[in-house]
Amino acid sequence: MKYKIPRGTQDILPATSPLWRIVEEKAHDLCRRYNYKEIRTPMFEQTELFARGVGDTTDIVQKEMYTFEDRGGRSLTLRPEGTASVARSYAENKMHGWADQPVKLYYIGPMFRYERPQSGRMRQFVQFGVEAMGSDDPAIDAEVIALAMNFYQELGLKGLKLVINSLGDKESRNAHRSALVNHFEPRISEFCGDCQQRLETNPLRILDCKKDRDHELMATAPSILDYLSDESSAYFKNVQRYLESMNIPYTVDSGLVRGLDYYNSTAFEIMLEGDGFGAITTLMGGGRYNGLVEDLGGPETPGIGFALSLERLLMALETQGIELPVEEGIDAYLVTMGDNAKQHAPALLHRLRAAGIAAEADYMNKKMKGQFKAADRQKAAFTLVIGDDELENGTVVLKNTETGEQENIPEEKAIEKIKEERGA
RNA sequence: GCGGCCGUGGCGAAGCUGGUUAACGCACCGGAUUGUGGCUCCGGCACGCAUGGGUUCGAAUCCCAUCGGUCGCCCCA
User: Which domains does chain A have, with CATH numbers?
Assistant: First the structure.
């Protein structure tokens, strides 16, 4: 084989593309009910947007971006996530001036990260994301979380676990960071190499290290929640109160950290209980990003959103054996016998299709037996048979593929009958 | 960037302590059955075992390299 698909990408073939449509339609429908409007931003942006927005020190920016130079010498990057683009668009299109606030947007589209692929992690993957911008009402936090939970629940997923935390404002975060360093530094040599690294880069990450989970310093480590300002603390309490009022169960985990620089205040994740699938348990991540729009040159704007991967969703559905209602099978397969009938086929097919009937015929010069097999394989509800006799009479043999009953009737009658049966 | 496992027909999969013709199953095509499928029977379907070197009288089977897949680490959706 000369050409191969690029690493970390996939062809979504007809066997699975219907699942994607179902899931995407669910997202569209849910957003309609929650009154979020679709936004479509470019799949690439100025590299600087992500460096600024996502954060220079993040793994995404440091080693995962698909960056290239265009013919004009501009540095562009395939988007690794959606929030930076939406924030850019918010500022650029002066959405702060729109009559209806907050501006509630959603998107579905491919994202790109240069990583070693593994189960649930691709170089091109599809995210469904939601952003609510312009409001710092804790009720909108709860709404965004509720939307995500409903999305999974309405698709039938079980064992969902919502985890929330508050990262506080910048001051709270810095104070907490110092406290963590002070806590671990004296005995950091007792920790794994990764953790020793984390002490420098992101001390918060030490808290969810799998290797050092049982170290005694873990239990006594300072919690971000103890460093929240009164305001941040009250805000977080309100988010929780709203979740409770909607009967959405959650767990507060002070170790929940989000990886991107723009997050602050409310942070949340939806995970799969137990082992999940492969090494992946996180289905969705999100949080508040007050200040992002401002960082990108717009007005001071609070914002909150989430992003989830449709690949991971489909994997989760599959591991739980959840079957989505895929419509399959065509309405009619036209079997022809002899040259005259074959020549008449296109015209009859044309008429069937114009009448709203999903119809197919043979283009491989198959014998009758082969045509019937094809009709079975394609799950045709009806088989139409025409030969010299039928052509002469302007009739067609209409056969119900399942029951095997058949009758010789005029073409128009057959079309009517199929329409009636199939609701076309 | 690092590590484990793997790479044989459209798919699944034997063969892998080296030795004429590369099992078998599924799918597909044809015939038995020249106007009717799903069952049965018969037949067909890999100038070739990821690619390139090497060892050998001889390699799908051993060695090396490269590429690819997969799973995991890091991190994340």
Answer: 17-169+229-319 (3.30.930.10), 332-418 (3.40.50.800)
